[in-house]
């Protein structure tokens, strides 16, 4: 295999997953591609290290506050007369807090995946640079020894694996966002009566996901 053949193979594999295989110094984004002009929010978040770090800190702090408030209200509900106006008010507040907690935990998962995508993108860029440097050093027949061929094969295998891993993470990100919307819909469909029975420990709401039940008890 010649250097040009390797570059074409890398480019073809990269295009399959929407990855830019160029190593130009003008490329500043780990997700930049020469043919795409529309940048999605998750791609912006991958590039915005400082902003996502601050947002994660804000989420963690707010999650602590919401959890403490929800636990306090849950304790009050158990001491309140069932079906009373006071219980209804407390339940509405409790369900709003639970919705917010659900959203915050979902955002935590989102940013954790964003960080993994960021690391995968850096790994891809590093492997791409190593392969590019190898082909530049000997532009024609660059396999001088069996050891060099083995090293190139190993780098190419790592490169393809890294791209596939990044693609898997992106799909996981989309699935997480869909799950969050589904959980929010389930919580909104939960009636006050069933919420009361659940908080008091006499019933588990059938419409709530297993993940939400865990958070409600957390």
Automatic annotation (TrEMBL):
Compositional bias annotation for Polar residues: 19-34
Ranges of residues in domain BMERB: 55-185
Region (Disordered): 17-36
SMART domains, A to Z: DUF3585
Official protein name in the record: BMERB domain-containing protein
Organism: Trichostrongylus colubriformis (Black scour worm)
